[in-house]
Amino acid sequence: MTVPRPARATAFPTLPMPSAAPTLVKRSMSHRVSPLRRMPSLRALGALLGSLALAACSEAPAPAAAPEAAPPVVQGNQLRYAPGNPQLQRFGVQAAKPATALAVELPARLVWDEERTQRLYAAFAGRVSAIRADVGQAVRPGTVLATLASPEFGQAQADTAKAGVDLQLSQKTLQRQRELFNDGIIARKELEVAEAEAAKARADVAQASARTRLYGGSGSIDQRLGLTAGIAGIVVARNINPGQELRPDQSGADAPPLFTISDPTSLWVQIDAREADVGTLRPGAAFRLVIPTLPGQTFQGTVTAAADFIDPNSRTIKVRGKVANPDRQLKAEMLGTVRFERALGAGGVAVPASAVMLRGTKHIVFVQRQEGVFEPQEVEIANEGTREVVVSSGLKVGDPVVTDNTLLLLNQLRSAQDDAPRPGAAAPAAGTDAKAAR
Q1: Which three-class secondary structure string do you get for 314-348?
Q2: For the purposes of burial, counting CB atoms within 10 Å of the CB of 132, is it exposed (0-12), middle (13-18) or buried (19 or more)?
Q3: At a CB cut-off of 8 Å and minimum separation 6, what does 316 contact?
Q4: SS (H, E, C) the chain
Q5: Which range (5-9, 250-254, 305-309, 378-382) has the least confidence?
Q6: What angle do CA 298, 301, 304 make, to 5 degrees?
Q7: pLDDT tens string 270-317
């Protein structure tokens, strides 16, 4: 039998629960997730973290950056590099040698050999009727290059014919006068006049015939003037066209020749020499000719003449040489370089021209005192060439001088001198450092 509990006395009356409370409680209870249901998601998260860790471990470590080379430092007047500095490979070093001869290079230009060249102009006015030769054609003396119809040349042919008629008449007159003189009919004076007239007629015939024969005229009067070659060679230039009107006043230095004939197997070399090189480039001296467009080939030449004055514009002396060209590889108006050696006296030291620099008003070279140690050295220049320089003081034979990238070495020396602490500069005070640290 159940005994009922007595009711508690409350200060407030018991309020009835709303009808929705049980429903909310049930719903909240129904949305609670069991720990067993959370296990699959935790397992997936663990697997993902494990795969990421494994991928991170499988990646190769990044290579370490190569350490930068230490910059050179200045010690006294020397620029010092650390052993193994990669910049040391840029500086080529060559030992100074005794200066017995200086290698000299001078600009040169090839031109036609004027001793084997002929330029043709029209001696009479006329019109071009035919052209019989062109550029590149080989000709011999007497070869007709072009034909002109020239009334002026026809007049010369007529003068030659008239001179021949006058000569025949004077000879007949002389013969008759001799017969009369032998018979005592005329005086000796009249015979001498006839002899003089005959001699004059013979001279006129010789002059007129030589004139027409010189320009290729025949015995007939056809007004045909032939331009003929006077030497054997090759037609190297042509400035004439069919039907062109020509006049003798169109010749000269300002007018191009109608034909130019030359022998290209021999060429002249025009050299612009300096005053110091004239003593070496005397007639008979040998030189070497190098053409940039013909690499690897050297042509031997000989000096034939030298001018006795200095060109006021270029301050050079014109020297002429001759070079053989049997294969016709060389062409007129080519530009090249003439090389030769100029003998020097004893006592000088020769270094490459790339080793010498101008620092202010002084010439300097960098001397390698030991591996990675370079020192600038002032020198005095005795002779300066395009490839070599002769030093009279400041170097001795055997000194290793820098020949490559000397400007880079000079810039690094200046930079190191600017970064180096100057002697006598006050050190920063301790209080200042403490304040800065604070």
Answers
A1: CCCEEEEEEEECCCCCCCCCCEEEEEEEEECCCCC
A2: middle
A3: 272, 273, 274, 310
A4: CCCCCCCCCCCCCCCCCCCCHHHHHHHHHHCCCCHHHHHHHHHHHHHHHHHHHHHHHHCCCCCCCCCCCCCCEEECCEEECCCCCHHHHHCCEEECEECCEEEEEEEEEEEECHHHEEEECCCCCEEEEEECCCCCCEECCCCEEEEEECHHHHHHHHHHHHHHHHHHHHHHHHHHHHHHHHCCCCCHHHHHHHHHHHHHHHHHHHHHHHHHHHCCCCCCCCCEEEEECCCCEEEEEECCCCCCEECHHHCCCCCCCCEEEECCCEEEEEEEECHHHCCCCCCCCEEEEECCCCCCCCEEEEEEEECCCCCCCCCCEEEEEEEECCCCCCCCCCEEEEEEEEECCCCCEEEEHHHCEEECCEEEEEEEEECCEEEEEEEEEEEECCCEEEEEECCCCCCEEECCCHHHHHHHHHHHHHHCCCCCCCCCCHHHHHHHHC
A5: 5-9
A6: 160
A7: 999 988 888 889 999 999 999 999 999 999 999 999 999 998 888 899
Tens digits of per-residue pLDDT, 128-167? 999 999 999 999 999 999 999 988 888 888 888 888 899 9
Count other C-beta atoms under 10 Å from residue 298's C-beta: 10
Task: Give this prediction's pTM.
Answer: 0.64
Angle at 88 between CA 76 and CA 70, to 5 degrees: 65
User: CA-to-CA distance for 79 and 250, rounded, in angstroms?
Assistant: 71
Indicate the length of the chain as a whole number. Answer: 438
Residues 6+ apart with CB under 8 A from 428: none
User: pLDDT for 32-82, tens place per residue?
Assistant: 444 434 444 545 555 555 555 444 444 555 555 555 667 888 888 888 998
